[in-house]
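FAQ
Q: What does a multi-component entry look like?
A: The components come first, one per line:
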Amino acid sequence: MGLFSKESIAPGKRAEHEARAAAWEDALARQSLPPFVVDRLQNAAIGKQPWVATMSPAELLLAKSHGVRPIATVSGTCWFHYGWSWTEGHEEGWHHALNRIRREAVACGANAIVDVRMRTLRHSFGPSMDFTLIGTAIRVEGLKPSPDPIVATVPALEFVRLLEMGIVPVGIAVGACYNWLGGGGFGYGSGGSLTQWQTGAFAGNQPLTELGDFWEGIRREAHASLRANAATMGNGVLAHTHFGEILKQDRDKQPPAYLGRHIVVGTVVDTPRGADVPHEIEPTIDMRDGLSPLKRTGEVRHAVYDTDSSEQEGSI
Amino acid sequence: MAEQQIPEHALARLAGLRRDGHPGGIFTSDFSVNEFLLVRKAGFEPIGLCVGSCIYHLGFQFAAWSANQELDVLSTAMYEARALAMERMRLEAAQMGADGIVGVRLTVKRLEWDSKILEFVAIGTGVVHAKGHQGFKGPNGQPFTSALSGQDFWTLLAAGYRPLEMVMGSCVYHVARRGPLATLGSVGQNVELTNFSLALYEAREIAMERMQTEAAQAGAEGVVGADLHEGSHNWSPHVIEFFAIGTAVLPIEGHEADDIPDPKLVLSVNS
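Then the predicted structure of the entire assembly, as tokens:
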């Protein structure tokens, strides 16, 4: 039989396919994993199957020298439809994906998932999108499997370095908030009229106080919810990306309404305050002309909310 | 090299033995991992992200068709809006008890629905000295501000300087159009368009002067990382903004040039 057989799938295959689909459906409903996934992960854990890692050889070298063993590539996906709120839909979508990737890590007896990347396809079917996390489950030699593996968004190379310095990257925190200024049925009610007056045809130089305060409030709340989310895991959030926008909605015989939304995503760390950094730092100057591995800029870890490169925003 | 050990608390966390958070003190920061480590190495701890924003409505100013002139209404607007955003950021930092702000990024965003409204945002990470040293505060006991990354912050302190505050100068300038006779006169010739040259010189000079004056007022010895941006925020083609920005610095007392180790020269062979 050729690879691209004109015949439809053989009856045996079809039954197998349907069984797998049913197993997935059942597993998602019961918040567990299909038996064949559990088998694959457990076989990788005990060495019956080869391990799979997203690590580069350099990362493998450092991981091995520090007793870190890769087990398997694990993932969590949730295609989520945000019905009543874009903002909170995003927050919930990521939380589902996080739970699912953790489930796979538990199945293979991992202590941590490193090199976790946030991904999303650029397909959207109406107000929905996929929230995907992919990473490498690892085991630290001499430690028992963890019932609650940590989720580290840093590559294995940085993971080991961080551990040495007493910093444990433990998870991903998400904070989101949205609100209406005027209209929308919620929020600031009849607001928006001061903004309309401040942006009128004859208005001069001035800060838009009403809109500015409204916007600042949203951002603060998003950060507060990020901190609350992070507080359940660690004591700090690093490397966060944020995405926010204000949309204007014109209304009949009323001042326009404004919708503001803001979402912040970051890596949670757990570290004693003021911990020592044992490594010495040595200044070096690279003698290579042109592109050098020392001068190359780091790659972006996740490009889901890439506002920093949007065409509407300038650096200064 | 001595074998590096993974600390006890990290191992406990990896084994899943300890999963409690720290509801008391959470810091947030947009530092990368490397920045975080270097700020720590420099003796500081991040305590929170500081953000200041200002949504600003720009006034209107008429410029004569053939005049080289500063559009002071716009200059003032662009400066005031940034200063307000920076001031609000600094206020947030002071409220959380920060000694200073590292890695400040200043952005301007045009809102889609109105070309006269600009959103100015200043974002940075508030830091405190880990041992409570008070000598790093900026002017008037306020938190210092600096546009330096975590890496640059470590290097600046190693060089024996401390950041005071970000200084800036703005100048929005209208570059005169050339009259029809002048245009006709230069057809087929190689000539300098002196009025254009002059306009650019003058506008840049004004922006630089303003930044330097700010640095002098802050009592700085110098300005590092000074940069000059040219921008036209969707204005007509003859209107240009020159914006100068940098971090004013002061020497750390008792720091000698001999304290600085010579950088090692390396040649990476793995490219």
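Q: Is there any commentary attached?
A: Sometimes. For this entry: The beta strands of chain A are 68-81, 112-119, 128-140, 150-151, 168-181, 206-207, 236-251, 254-270, 284-286, 313-314.
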